[in-house]
Amino acid sequence: MRDENKAARKRRIEQAALELLASKGYLATSMLSVAKRAKASNETLYNWYGNKQGLFRSLVEANAGEVRALLEHDLVQDRPPEATLKALGPLLLGLLVSDRAITLNKAAAADPSGELAHELTQAGRGAVAPLIADVFVKARDAGVLRFVDAGKAVGLYLDLLVGDLQIRRVLGAVPALTQPQVERRASRALANLKLLLSAPRHQKP
Amino acid sequence: MRDENKAARKRRIEQAALELLASKGYLATSMLSVAKRAKASNETLYNWYGNKQGLFRSLVEANAGEVRALLEHDLVQDRPPEATLKALGPLLLGLLVSDRAITLNKAAAADPSGELAHELTQAGRGAVAPLIADVFVKARDAGVLRFVDAGKAVGLYLDLLVGDLQIRRVLGAVPALTQPQVERRASRALANLKLLLSAPRHQKP
DNA sequence: AAGCATCCGTAACAATGTGTACGCTTATTG
DNA sequence: CAATAAGCGTACACATTGTTACGGATGCTT
Prior knowledge:
DNA-binding; homodimer; 11 helices; mainly alpha
């Protein structure tokens, strides 16, 4: 009951921080405003997170952990690689261009120390790319894909799937994608990937 | 001589602003620090640019103008479309992931008002995409490319060419590309684009 | 029920930012 | 040469931030 309460309050605080971040930006989101919105105290924030960066770092970590959990949960189902591959795209794309992820990317870009950005890429692509690579290797073993360098194949896939959507969303040039849009784009990306990976490829020099 | 001096000082100021922006970030780059570095006065900055956003907006505009000029100069040479297409890639990619462009993107992401971001996308993709579309249409007329919707073809090309490089560079996850890297990536993107655009395509729903 | 830790609300503090004002120097113009 | 405009350096008000500190309330433990 004690820890439960604490966890709930922690969720409230991080929720409040995210909301303020989304509406005001990193700069204008002060610790006091977060405390106020979460009905928590300034002192508590500093006791729990140390400082402003600490608070937002924990947001990044929480989100990255959730993303990884979702992906892993999705991959653990023992489907044929083809189906896993198909399911991966919309899930991944949806997560990467979600409002929350974009908000965090924006904050990371605005953080002067660069620590948030480091954390984000580390916990983001650093943790996700290997998972995708695993799926790709399994798909290759099953004859669905054909490639030499798994890392390059994943890079190509991410280019096709995500492209410059993230930066454009960070800059506010495009609104959030609807679910059908996500699915359409993912299916197109996969189709294109297969086309490119089945054609005769040039080798890396 | 009068205007000459003024223009020179303006260059010094914007140069100083860019340098500080690159090293300290948007938040930590104060007007006074810019003035100091440019050996100019605070008052002059405010007289010329109005406010902080105005200063950085003018940086964005200057860069966008330069990019467009470079591209247009490149496209005006009357080469066969194939050659134009080949030359476009490295030039465009180099410009989009250059230190200066990335610095400005970062600043735009950090600007709380979103005005810089708006300006950047407007003057950036908004002005560049039509130029690329022109090249593509000429290439199609010459039988080099095959597509229905020029906008979609350009989008696919940008995905292949730039991908998520911009956001990763903004987050500091990857260093600046060397010229050979730029050329390699551009040539691969073009090859892939041709493959995809010559294969039987699904139509948009 | 007493004691204790935790946390809220609020205040205080030092630092810094933007934007403005004001003498003083410097260069241009008639 | 005199007059004038522009710009530098400095200082200023004013707001806001991150961070620390403190008194009082609240709830858990013994």
